[in-house]
Amino acid sequence: MKGSNEQLAEQQPPTAAVSLKNMLAELKNRGFFHIFGSSIINKIVQFASGIFLVRLLAKTDYGAYVYAQNWLNIIMLLTGLGSSYALMQFGSESKNLKERNGYFSYALKIGLFFNLLLCGAVVFISQHLGASQQQSHLLFFMFLMPLFLYLFDYIQIFFRTNLRNAEFSWLSSTNTIAIFLFSVIGAVLFQAMGVIVGTYLAYTVSLAFGALLLEYSGLDTRDETRVADKKGFFVYALQSMVNNGISQTVYLIDIFLLGLLISDPGLLATYKTATLIPFALNFIPSAVMTFVYPYVAKHQDDKNWVREHQRKLQKYLLLMNAVIAGVSILFAPLVLTILFGSQYEDAATYFRILMLGYFLAGTFRSPAGNMLAMLKRVKILIVINAVMGALNLIMDWLMIRQFGALGAAWTTCSVIALTALLYHLSLSSATRSPGRSQM
Fold it and tell me: Which pLDDT value is given to residue 421?
């Protein structure tokens, strides 16, 4: 009888508790909690940094800094000619370290040369910006940022593609904490210019720490083979740069046009403050997709596997983001007053609209777009984002002229919703089994 009971127990499926325990153990072994935990810490620190800067800088000074930083972000859409995106894809696909190192060596040559050109572009634009003297002055002193940002991203991708999640997380957290400390100290001492100086110091510390981690990681970065598919790498890099560049304009064009059409530093500061929480929360889907990227890239030909895991991600993100967005929208004035002070309570309406935009982006747009990139469906992403980018520009121009910052917020939310819909239709098509009905 005892033997029969033991056999019956062995045949029974595992309980939900056991399944959850096994799943958590697997995630821990693969380094998910390193990445997700680091992302949470980083975003908390980054958000705290934003709060301090809003409170430490005068509203007009903060508005000038925001406009200069937005210009730098626009220029950085061209960073490395897209080599960082190609590194993540081709590095994840590489069969061994030698092959992976070959791609990294090739990308470094392209990225460093092109980002030197971007440094020159920052100088040129700062002198022909047509904005206030303070805005032009701040942008000019950001001219070395393209080099610092590219090198830091390069080291981060090396750790990710080698599945060294602990090193990736340590370096990411070090960078975030350093930026917080040095930029806040800089703001106290020298206002907006001090923030820029502090950021340079933070990246210097981070790059030095990254070099040490590489030295002690046990990975031989000099052992490499010739890149077999330079053309494929370069084409993917350019396509990804165009795709992601257009995609990111939805978060950049509103600040740009608000500064161009209205030229009110106070309004820029208010609108930027309204974006801080919604945009910062994008770390949630970003952290999840950063973790799954190498695995999806390796299973890109298994449509059933991709479809099944995409649905699981969708379900969990939907539940999490619904709670976050709902609470934030309901208590918007209180949240803004507590975090940024009563002078930014007028940002509540923009904040509510942008939180709805976050829910749509974090739950639908970002995961589906990343999945399409992992499946190398870059061309369809370019087409969708080109159409949406043009629509975003036209709508922003018309809506801002008619409704001011309120028009910018509604445009961002609307474009996110349309893009998410098109991404999902494309992903459903890409993951449909060959024999499955097309209906």
Answer: 93
